[in-house]
Specification:
The chain is of the alpha+beta class and about 900 residues long. It has four domains: about 280 residues, Immunoglobulin-like, CATH 2.60.40; about 140 residues, Neutral Protease Domain 2 (Neutral Protease, domain 2), CATH 1.10.390; about 100 residues, Immunoglobulin-like (Sandwich), CATH 2.60.40; about 270 residues, Peptidase M1, alanyl aminopeptidase, C-terminal domain (Zincin-like fold), CATH 1.25.50.10. The protein has 25 helices and 31 strands. A hairpin with a 2-residue loop joins strand 7 and strand 8. The radius of gyration is 28 Å and the shape is globular. It starts with 11 loop residues before the first strand and ends with a helix. The structure holds tryptophan and zinc ion (ZN). The site of zinc ion has 4 residues, from helix 3.
Length: about 900
């Protein structure tokens, strides 16, 4: 069911927005659910929107068989409407219309996982962004909000559970082996929030009392055999409900809230009203199958989807160009939720560092490539390609900047005004900005550029100190590189949180000319609004060390020249934990870049003692949270190092990084061993912040220790693998064993452990995904090995999680092997994209993006990449999803 297209698919522009010609008041639907042929009857009451330039009644449909179309009780003749692609137009419709539509759809044949599809014999829907049109003809656009009543009918044995949006108002038998359930959603919603689920499912449920005293029913639905894995999702849901009440005064508006887990899902999860549908990866957990990272992922995704109930559902998007209105804001909310749950200052900083790492590694890269787009795009070919890190993560940073500029209370006031103005409406990013501006009285006109201009801004910092007048000057200059369709950029409104450190590393009381009202503060938020601005600080007794962009106060690249000594001072002392970590990363990056060049030049590699000692001091500093130490000791990824180069040499980067890991282990072996011993977590597994932090540091130590072949560290990893009581420790040990560069005997033992792991967990799909992933990213895994793993009986491209676990992990997570000199990695990539394109265009288009940055590689690799890109481009029946990504890459 791919969107087959012949020529270049059309581009949709934001500027072409026209309000719908008709509003919808009510939607009644009846489903006769059958896996082969499902019959859908829909009655829609509509009324003309006299304010619209659109005079026709417009409906969208895709992959539908139309059985009946009646308007106001009369069958519509073939000449009363036109169908062009997905668009049906009925001209001369009266002002008040009741449409009755009957369609036939084929869930079993639907491998796109959009619309109504089958998963392990159950029915699942996914309607965002444009999946509802695969169920019935409808004005399937987010600004058309209506009330839905849905009747589900199905065989009772095969489909004992029938779920819909909102409240269950009636259920019963139909007498013929079938039964029914009638659901009514009391809130108006856009069609993309429609959902139904039917099949054999079991649930963990609980009555939960809201702050107001009202009791609500919470359910987590899973396939049989998984009820021992739902507790964490349920806990996360209750935490989410409580958090939104406390932090934003937002209450659950339904009497019932359901989460359903499915193993066939294109993304993480979906916020359908009252009936969230999740990828099993973000629901199922117990200590046997899930790692600490999985537990954290579940918490934040459960939070994310729950928070959409207000930011996305009650207030939704006018059109899909406004996607970040709901996604950026909801990511900000889920990030704050996870940070608040940990509570401590370091805990919050750790969460912030993890989020910024993703932003820099993935979003900055997107912003520098052919798919770069503004947080509020101006155009797209396929909206599914715009569920991006720019919309989500950069969008969240944009929301965070309001929070930084307006403060905790100020931001809350803005949110309150946003809901007071727009509850029940479909609005734009500008409406959110207006609520923030009007509630605070601040002029946020220039702030709009964060929505309209793509690319990552660079801020350059230059300083001068005059001992005589005790004056320190900080000059900040901003620029932003050209991006597709945007050559010239105007200055952004950039909040730069900062402080100055004295020679002991203590914060200095600040006296800045531009912020005299805040004299004496040790942390200031400078507002950079011009291309270049100079901030003058007086009463500075000695030349300070600046700490800029504290807590990463804006999504920019900061150019500043620090000496190693200054970075050492910041790493050891900055009162801002984010910038302590940042200083360590700067020290590491500097060395990794130099060493990469040394590898290319064939020079001997050396690691200096200043760096080793700075890391040693952090590693042994027990006053620091173990998770913070783990982050400081983690070297920038190969992808991050690559960003430092104009021309990327993946193998040289890999060699340099491996060298630093080995050198650190040689020098810090004793310290890593004691960190290992000191951070064991004996006893029953709990996913609490302290135990998770300990396991993170302990397993990082293990991974370092296994970077330097040695009999005793191999034993350590083997013992941990054999005796592990939880998946976090077991997987970390298996990874250490697999990546151990040791003897043949050790390699054989590692292979045995991999086999045993598979055997022990072959019934747990999510664990087998980890098994594939671990091998996909191992530096011994080349293209031939990936092809061999693709032949494994447990591998299939038909399931997105499984496809991602091996092929995506290899193409995106194993750069030194993927970029093999002979181009074999790209040839594999092209085959995979072409194959996936037939099965699932959305998933295919994600993989297609692995070659986005092809222009950053040496010419001989570029040639191979171009061939691979052209091979995909020449494929027949290319979905518009893949066509857009490949087209933009080739145009770069
Ligand atoms: N709105 C979902 C979220 O919260 C995203 C999503 C889930 C989605 N499934 C999808 C988007 C399928 C497009 C297609 O992040
Ligand atoms: Zn979302």
């Amino acid at each position: 069911m791919s969107n087959d297209i012949a020529a270049t698919p059309p581009t949709i522009f934001r500027k072409d927005y026209v309000a719908p010609g008709f509003w919808v008041d009510t939607v009644e639907m009846g489903f006769d659910l059958d896996l082969h042929e499902t019959h859908v009857a829909t009655r829609i009451t509509m009324r003309r929107n006299h304010d619209s330039a659109e005079k026709d009644l417009v409906l969208f449909g895709a992959s539908l068989k139309l059985l009946q179309l009646r308007m106001n009780g009369v069958n519509l003749k073939k000449n009363a409407y036109t169908i062009d692609g997905e668009v049906m137009r009925i001209a001369n419709a009266p002002d008040e219309v009741t449409l009755e539509i009957e369609t036939l759809i084929k869930p079993l044949k639907n491998t796109s996982l959009s619309g109504l599809y089958a998963s392990n014999g159950n029915f699942i829907t996914q309607c965002e962004a444009e999946g509802f049109r695969k169920i019935t003809w409808f004005p399937d656009r987010p600004d058309v909000m209506a009330k839905y009543t849905v009747m589900l009918r199905a065989n009772k044995k095969k489909f004992p559970i029938l779920l819909g949006n909102g409240n269950l108002i009636e259920e019963g038998d139909l007498g013929d082996g079938r039964h029914f359930a009638k659901w009514e959603d009391p809130f108006k919603k856009p069609s993309y929030l429609f959902a139904l689920v039917a099949g054999k499912l079991v649930c963990q449920e609980e009555n939960y009392t809201l702050k107001s005293g009202r009791s609500v029913l919470l359910q987590v639905w899973v396939e049989d055999g998984n009820l021992d894995k739902t507790q964490h999702a349920m806990d996360s849901l209750k935490n989410s409900i409580r958090w939104d009440e406390e932090r934003f005064g937002l209450e659950l508006d339904l009497d019932r809230f359901m989460i359903v887990a499915t193993s066939d899902f294109n993304m993480g999860a979906m916020e359908n009203k009252g009936l969230n549908i999740f990828n099993t990866k973000y629901v199922l957990a117990n200590s046997r199958i899930a790692t600490d990272v999985d537990y954290a992922g579940i918490e934040s995704v459960v939070g994310h989807e729950y928070f959409h109930n207000w930011t996305g559902n009650r207030v939704t998007c006018r059109d899909w160009f406004q996607l970040s209105l709901k996604e950026g804001l909801t990511v900000f909310r889920d990030q704050e939720f996870s940070a608040d749950l940990v509570g401590t200052t370091t805990g919050r900083a750790v969460k912030r560092i993890e989020d910024v790492r993703v932003l820099r590694q993935v979003q900055f890269s997107e912003d520098a490539g052919p798919m770069a787009h503004p947080v509020r795009p101006d155009s797209f070919v396929e909206i599914n390609n715009f569920y991006t890190v720019t919309i989500y993560e950069k969008g969240s940073e944009v929301v965070r900047m309001y929070y930084t500029l307006l403060g905790h209370e100020g931001f809350r006031k803005g949110m309150d005004l946003y809901f007071a103005r727009h509850d029940g409406q479909a609005v734009e990013c500008d409406d959110f900005r207006a609520a923030m501006a009007d509630s605070s009285g601040r002029d946020l006109t220039q702030f709009e550029r964060w929505y309209s201009q793509s690319g990552t801004p660079r801020v350059k910092a230059e300083t001068t100190y005059d001992a005589e007048t005790q004056t320190y000057q900080l000059t900040l200059s901003q620029s932003c590189p050209a991006t597709p369709g945007q050559d010239e950029k105007l200055p952004f409104h950039i909040p730069v949180a900062m402080g100055l450190l004295d020679a002991e590393g203590k914060d200095i009381a600040l006296h800045c000319d531009a912020y005299s009202a805040l004299a004496g503060a040790t942390n200031l938020i400078l507002e950079l609004t011009e291309a270049s601005q100079t901030f003058t600080f007086t009463g500075v007794a000695a030349k300070p060390v600046p700490s800029l962009l504290r807590n990463f106060s804006a999504p920019v690249l900061l150019d500043i020249e620090y000496s190693d000594e200054e970075l050492g001072l910041l790493l050891a002392n900055d009162s801002d934990p984010f910038n302590r970590w940042e200083a360590g990363q700067r020290l590491a990056t500097r060395r990794l870049v130099k060493l990469t060049k040394a590898v290319q030049a064939g020079e001997t590699l050396e690691l200096d003692s200043m760096f080793i000692e700075a890391l040693r001091a952090t590693l042994v500093n027990e006053s620091l949270d173990p998770s913070f130490r783990e982050l400081v000791l983690t070297l920038p990824s190969e992808a991050m190092i690559a960003e430092e180069f104009d021309v990327v040499d993946p193998q040289a980067i890999h060699t340099a990084r491996q060298f630093v890991r080995t050198a650190l282990t040689q020098h810090l072996r004793a310290e890593f061993l004691s960190a290992y011993e000191a951070n064991l977590t004996p006893g029953q597994y709990t996913p609490d912040a302290i135990s998770m932090a300990k396991r993170a540091l302990k397993n990082l130590a293990l991974s370092y220790l296994s970077a330097w072949s040695d009999e005793s560290t191999f034993e350590l990893a083997q013992t941990q693998f054999d005796e592990a009581e939880n998946m976090t420790d077991r997987l970390a040990a298996l990874s250490a064993l697999t990546n151990f560069h040791g003897t043949e005997t050790q390699a054989n033992a590692a292979a045995q452990s991999l086999k045993k792991f598979y055997k022990d967990f072959k019934k747990e799909a999510l664990v087998i995904d980890k098994w594939f992933m671990l091998q996909a990213v191992a530096d011994t895994t080349d293209v031939a090995k990936v092809r061999e793993l693709m032949e494994h009986k447990a591998f299939t491209l038909g399931n997105p999680n499984r496809a991602r676990s091996l092929t995506f992990s290899f193409c995106n997570g194993n750069p030194s092997r993927f970029h093999a000199a002979d181009g074999s990695g790209y040839a594999l990539w092209a085959e995979l994209v072409i194959e996936l394109n037939k099965i699932n265009p959305q998933v295919a288009a994600r993989l297609a993006r692995s070659l986005d940055r092809w222009k950053k590689y040496p010419l001989h690799l570029q040639e191979h990449m171009k061939l691979a890109l052209e091979k995909v481009a020449a494929t027949k029946k290319l979905s518009k999803d893949v066509a857009e990504v490949i087209g933009k890459a080739l145009a770069a």
